[in-house]
Design goal:
Elements (H helix, E strand, L loop, with lengths): L1 E2 L2 E3 L8 E3 L3 E2 L5 H12 L1 H30 L9 H26 L5 H27 L5 H62 L10 H33 L8 H16 L2 H13 L3 H16 L2 H15 L3 H6 L3 H8 L14 H8 L64 H19 L1
Antiparallel strand pairs: 1-4, 2-3
Helix pairs in contact: 1-2, 2-3, 2-4, 2-5, 3-4, 4-5, 5-6, 5-9, 5-10, 6-7, 6-8, 7-10, 8-9
């Protein structure tokens, strides 16, 4: 479906209006939705399901505890007031609704071995919420008094608390550990892929080695295209090194990951001190000057320099995988999850040499302006770090634009009568695309002047 909007004013002299851009809506299967979400969100697509279930249990446990404390203040032999019966009924209904939502999350799994293994934890969480609802309904029986209600609520709180502890140990903690280690494994694959891109680019620039300063609009156009690609490699390399720095800071303070931390830091420092970025820039400048021989030599040297760091980058991935098995649940249930995550991103798997396809760029850019709406949860944007703290919190909302869901209860469940969807809002046109349009018209003007 293609949609657009038109609006007109009510000027008596003649209406003036404007139209929005056309938006294309594709309706896809749940399997395709999961695949696209995994490609766009990566590990967060899986984490969201379990974070949402944990939030539901926490919110319900808080409500049980609050109502239990209120009833504890009453005479144990007294009858519950009508308002308390209503509150108990509402709490039981909300517990059932929360159980239904967690159960729905467990019914469909992402194409990741770890998600399939951890689904049983979602089922247990749903059962615990349903059992708590039964206890609350027992507490709400007429004529049994405040003392009986307090006992039943205490039982519900205790049982749900045990399940929260189990869920944290068996699902939340393993995913948190994976979330801190995996980004560096992905960074290693990104470097391999980036090196392959530079090799491929160097081969294509080599075809222009004898083309120097020729006044040929078609040849100049090709050189400018290659210049843009070389500039993109330089920007991607800089961004990758910055990302590795950030991911190192997120590693847990655990002696078991010190080797990974040290190797990653040494890798970043060595690449920054090398001539790789300088050589890439020389190639870029030579293409700008239409000097094919200089561009070919610099591009080839850049590819060779990056290639020299491949083994060191592979050490990061290998140590990262080793660090994952220090977590018992990951050691037993991880399976091929790492390869599956990398594959969904279009990146080379562990031990592969890279394909030069720009998979990371495809995942982060080509899907950037695509909104995904469906049942697969999406985590909100990361908030800014708080004063005095070095880490930021991730949003807990189910909407990809990071905005809170106005149609959701505090526990994350949808309000009665409201259909809840996961989605991402439209993004503004990124600055780099505006720059590319500007560069394109500058090239056209240059060539027309020739």
């Amino acid at each position: 479906m293609k949609l657009f909007a038109r609006v007109e004013d009510n000027d008596p002299a003649g209406a003036k209006g404007t139209e929005s851009s056309v938006v294309t809506i594709h309706i896809v299967s749940q399997q395709e939705m999961d695949r696209m979400t995994l490609a766009k969100e990566g590990l967060e697509a899986m984490e969201s399901k379990y974070a949402q279930a944990a939030r539901r249990m926490e919110a319900m446990a808080d409500r049980i505890e609050k109502l239990k404390n209120e009833i504890a203040k009453l005479d144990p032999d007294s009858e519950l007031a009508e308002v308390k019966h209503d509150e108990l009924q509402k709490l039981a209904d909300d517990l059932e609704a929360a159980a239904d939502e967690v159960e729905k999350s467990a019914e469909h799994t992402l194409p990741l071995d770890l998600d399939k293994a951890l689904t049983k934890e979602l089922t247990k969480a749903a059962d615990a919420l349903r059992d708590a609802a039964k206890e609350v309904r027992e507490a709400n029986k007429a004529g049994l008094g405040a003392g009986h209600a307090g006992e039943k609520l205490a039982d519900a709180a205790k049982a749900l608390g045990r399940e929260q502890d189990d869920f944290k140990q068996n699902a939340s903690d393993p995913l948190e550990h994976l979330d801190k280690i995996y980004p560096l494994i992905e960074d290693q694959s990104r470097f391999i892929d980036l090196t392959a891109q530079q090799r491929d680019l160097a081969e294509r620039i080599a075809a222009l080695e004898t083309k120097n300063g020729q006044d040929d609009p078609q040849l100049k156009g090709r050189m400018r295209d290659l210049q843009e690609q070389q500039s993109q490699v330089r920007n991607d390399l800089r961004q990758l090194l910055d990302d590795i720095d950030e991911h190192i800071e997120r590693l847990p303070e655990d002696p078991k990951v010190d080797d990974l931390r040290k190797t990653a830091r040494e890798f970043v420092e060595a690449v920054r001190k090398s001539d790789a970025q300088t050589e890439i820039q020389k190639s870029e400048e030579a293409l700008s000057d239409f000097a094919g021989s200089r561009a070919a030599m610099a591009a080839r040297q850049a590819a060779e320099t990056l290639q020299s760091f491949i083994k060191k980058s592979e050490s990061i991935g290998q140590q990262g995988e080793q660090c994952l098995i220090f977590q018992p649940t990951l050691a037993s249930d991880l399976g091929d999850t790492i390869e599956q995550l990398l594959g969904s991103s279009g990146l080379p798997g562990m031990g592969k040499t890279g394909r030069g396809t720009g998979g990371y760029s495809a995942r982060r850019s080509s899907l950037k302006n695509v909104g995904l709406y469906g049942r697969t949860p999406v985590r909100g944007k990361e908030s800014a770090a708080q004063a005095g703290q070095g880490m930021a919190d991730r949003g807990a909302g189910t909407h990809g634009d990071g905005q809170p869901d106005a149609n959701a209860n505090p526990d994350g469940s949808a309000k009665s009568g409201v259909t809840q969807a996961t989605g991402e809002g439209d993004a503004a046109v990124p600055q780099q695309y505006k720059k590319r349009v500007n560069d394109y018209f500058r090239r056209v003007a240059d060539e027309l002047e020739q």
